[in-house]
Write a structure and sequence with these properties.
Bound molecules: nicotinamide-adenine-dinucleotide, 3-isopropylmalic acid, manganese (II) ion
Number of domains: 3
CATH architecture of the largest domain: 3-Layer(aba) Sandwich
Helix content: 40-55%
CATH class of the largest domain: Alpha Beta
Order of helices and strands: EHEHHEHEEEEHEHEHEHEEHHH
Structural class: alpha/beta
Number of helices: 11
CATH superfamily of the largest domain: Isopropylmalate Dehydrogenase
């Protein structure tokens, strides 16, 4: 029995999650996997009604699950960051989901933002998910002398920063710290090199900006060299700005890319454009020894929420990634094939790629294909 918590969340989150759950329902029944779902009403509505973002009890409850399936968080009525940092990042950090796996696969029948037929875009981003500029350490200070004590607490380590600022001549200054540890880099790099081995790639591309952020990405690079030796697989260093260029000019050259947190966030939205749009992009926040959380790459898309316009494919593929991570790779592959079949046939297209198929009709088509192929 798998225990899965479901957080539909905000905006289009509930719409796309509903379709992912329907697909999971059929796939798990066909493959005799029993899944017990518990839905948790977290997000803007809950926050606006109760003032609470997420309680310690809820986090404890999530800790008893095998996985979490999430739609999206963020709402124009709530200050940016309250829900995104308060729920999404809190869960990624609390459950130490240090790998953010984001496959960028262009399926047949889907128009990439790039021109050219028959493109074979198949790259996998392994984004570090607990460090870098996401650690949330920073402050805003005014003129004169000020002091801040900032604390970074992780399961395996703790770091205290005492920062004094003596600000002259301007009124306001804000700073935010990026952190890389050898421990944090090593474990995500190990995952990336293992993935490269599994995908028969002989090279891992490491993305950084070591020519400017010399301290944090200098340490990152040292760990890349060691990981490459440990795993007997080559590595190459690419600056993030050049990766953006190559992703557009020649995305076929990339197979497995490993990135610090912030660059991984940005490049995977670019990756989503290459695979047809944000509606097609799945992701997993993975702790191989703990509770992992699966969600589409996109956000709550308030501009199209509630209209049946959202593409549910990213959410459905995230559910497949969940099954795969939980050891049900055959079932995951069947979902992925159903998605591919429906997309290739071209009869069902959501509005993001110029069609008129609604969110639920896209879910119907994938569910029907799944039923047909498994009987
Ligand atoms: P977004 O990903 O929500 O939307 C960007 C654009 O892509 C919009 O035009 C939207 O309509 C479109 N889009 C996104 N998903 C789509 C889908 N499934 N089908 C069709 N079109 C889709 O990004 P944003 O507008 O920058 O952010 C909106 C809110 O979501 C913000 O509050 C942001 O903080 C939050 N956010 C949350 C997550 C998450 O929960 N993982 C991720 C990104 C952004
Ligand atoms: C994502 C999102 C999040 C991130 C935000 C909402 C915290 O953009 O999952 O890509 O930056 O990781
Ligand atoms: Mn993002």
């Amino acid at each position: 029995m798998l225990r899965v918590a479901v957080i539909p969340g905000d905006g289009i989150g509930p719409e796309v999650t509903k379709e992912a759950l329907r697909v999971l329902d059929v796939a798990s029944r066909e493959d005799s996997i029993s899944i017990e779902f518990e839905e948790l009403p977290l997000g803007a509505a809950h926050h606006l009604k109760t003032g609470e973002v997420i309680s310690d009890e809820t986090i404890e409850r999530l800790g008893e699950k095998d996985a979490v399936l999430l739609g999206a968080l963020g709402d124009p009525r709530v200050k940016p960051g309250v829900l995104e940092k308060g729920i999404l990042l809190r869960l990624r950090f609390h459950f130490d989901q240090y790998v953010n796996l984001r496959p960028v696969l262009l399926y047949d029948g889907i128009p990439s933002a790039l021109s050219g037929d028959g493109r074979r875009i198949a790259m996998r981003f392994v984004r570090e998910n607990t460090e870098d500029f996401y650690v949330g350490l920073g402050a805003r200070v005014g003129k004169g002398i000020s002091k801040s004590e900032l604390v970074l607490k992780r399961k395996a380590y703790e770091a205290k920063f005492d920062i004094g600022v003596d600000l002259k001549d301007v009124e306001d200054l804000a700073y935010q710290i990026g952190v890389v540890t050898s421990y944090g880099a090593r474990r995500v790099l190990d995952y990336a090199f293992e993935l490269a081995k599994a995908k028969h790639s002989d090279i891992v591309t490491s993305v950084d900006k070591a020519n400017v952020l010399t301290e944090i990405y200098g340490l990152w690079r040292e760990e890349v060299v060691k990981a490459s030796e440990r795993h007997g697989i080559m590595s190459e260093f690419q600056y993030v700005d050049a990766v953006a260029l190559h992703m557009v000019r020649n995305p076929e050259r990339f197979k497995v890319l490993v990135t610090p947190n912030l660059f991984g966030d940005i490049l995977t939205d670019l990756g989503a454009a290459l695979q047809g749009g944000l509606g097609f992009a799945p992701s997993g926040n993975i702790n191989p020894e703990g509770v992992s959380m699966f969600e589409p790459v996109h956000g709550s898309a308030p501009d199209i929420a509630g209209l049946g316009l959202a593409n549910p494919v990213g959410a459905i593929l995230s559910a497949a990634l969940m099954l795969d991570t939980l050891g049900h790779s055959d079932s995951a592959a069947r979902i992925e094939k159903a998605v591919q079949d429906v997309l290739r046939a071209g009869k069902h297209k959501t509005p993001d790629i110029g069609g008129t198929t609604s969110t639920s009709n896209m879910g119907d088509a994938i569910v029907e294909n799944l039923k047909k192929t498994s009987c």
